[in-house]
Amino acid sequence: MRRLHSFLRHMSNNPKSPQLIMWYTRPDAPLLEEVPECSVRSYSPGDEEQWLALLQANGQLGAWDRARLDAVLGETHLQYFVECRGCLAACTGINDRERDGEPCWEIGWVAVHPDFQGRGLGTLITGAALARAVELGRRPIYLLTDDFRVPALRCYLKLGFVPGDGHASYRERWRAIFAGLGEDYRALIPDFIAEER
Ligand SMILES: CC(C)(COP(=O)(O)OP(=O)(O)OC[C@H]1O[C@@H](n2cnc3c(N)ncnc32)[C@H](O)[C@@H]1OP(=O)(O)O)[C@@H](O)C(=O)NCCC(=O)NCCS
Question: Are 158 and 123 spatial neighbours (Cβ–Cβ below 8 Å)?
Fold first, then answer.
């Protein structure tokens, strides 16, 4: 399993391997489970300090300072948080993007504060943003992620995102990912990844 993990990390850091893309192609939003004492809300001016603290504590999306946060906020179409007992515990945004000349909604910068991880908040915040993107409509919805982000991959697959094809490396990389995810995720393996029989 350790060799598999280092292969996944290597693939993510390899310039010949672009980030993985996942698409949400269902017409309806997924059903979401509430998390006690936590609620989803959109951005309000003044959230920046706690939002920055969340991203810095998370530590897995690079280094964050106010300038980077403001840049992200400036290009975000809609920004969401999960608030738990007055703390910003999770964040993500919907970005207005273009892929191959087509307007799309991208779900970006999903993060949960380490003190709140493993309680369903990653699924809740991603699902809430996804529901809003479905409501906005008219555009394909995608996100970009990395081979080694196992909790994120689990969360996205369970919400109904499907691995996108489109790069020569994807089939082998997704096979390695699904090998690590085990039986629970076998039914979610798309055809382009399945082994030839
Ligand atoms: C990805 C992330 C947002 C998930 O948040 P979370 O609140 O812990 O996620 P959830 O509690 O909703 O769990 C989602 C899935 O991940 C699994 N999971 C949670 N923590 C895990 C861990 N440490 N190791 C393996 N799986 C884990 C859960 O069991 C669940 O899968 P399951 O439904 O098969 O049981 C969080 O781990 C995070 O902030 N990671 C760093 C930033 C990042 O990678 N963002 C994504 C960028 S694309």
Answer: yes
Pocket-testing residue among 64, 154, 177, ligand 1, by greatest number of atoms within 8 A of Cβ: 154
Residue 68 near residue 75, CB atoms below 8 Å: no
Domain span at residue 46 reads 2-23+30-188
Specify whether the CB–CB gap between 1 and 148 falls below 8 A.
no
Give the ligand 1 atom nearest the CA of 144: 48
Q: Is the CB of 150 under 6 A from ligand 1?
A: yes
d(CA 174, CA 17): 12
For residue 195, being part of any structural domain is answered with no
Residue range 32-50: mean pLDDT, rounded: 98
pLDDT > 70? residue 13 = no
CATH number at residue 145: 3.40.630.30
This prediction's pTM:
0.93
What is the domain count for the chain?
1
Rounded Cα distance between 164 and 142, Å, is 9
pLDDT of 138? 84
Does residue 193 sit within a domain? no
Higher pLDDT, residue 138 or 197: 138
Asked if 194 and 174 touch (Cβ cutoff 8 Å), the reply is no
Q: Give the residue whose CA is nearest to atom 16 of ligand 1.
A: 151
